[in-house]
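User: What would this chain look like folded?
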Amino acid sequence: MWHIPRPVLNRMLSHAQRSLPAECVGVLSGQGQTITGWHPLTNQWQDGRRFLADSTELIALLRQLRTEGQQLLAIYHSHPQGDTTPSPTDLQQAYYPDALYLIISLQTQGRLEMNGYRIRDGQATLQALTIVD
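Assistant: Here's the prediction, encoded as structure tokens.
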């Protein structure tokens, strides 16, 4: 089970809302399945239907995490016009098989809708998430 602190969840949701009409993208770090860090990244595609994390930012972040003894645990992004199901592009471009992929839907009416998946070989497996205070 993945543990996500409520402050991290709130930051992700705020990032998703501020990024409209584009998708947001970011990384969550920590150890094991306990998330402790939030790292928003720039989406290089602003078309509202896909994301591409800025490669310079991502490489710098991965170096920083390694130096700090932290791991990339999750990659999150939003679906401004869709649900929390991985799109065909999400499945195809899941380059980190050990990461949790979090998808935030913004097609809700004031309530959080987010799911997490492990994506390997183009197949998504729903993961259990726990929000901790």
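The chain has three helices and eight strands. If you want, I can go into more detail on any region.
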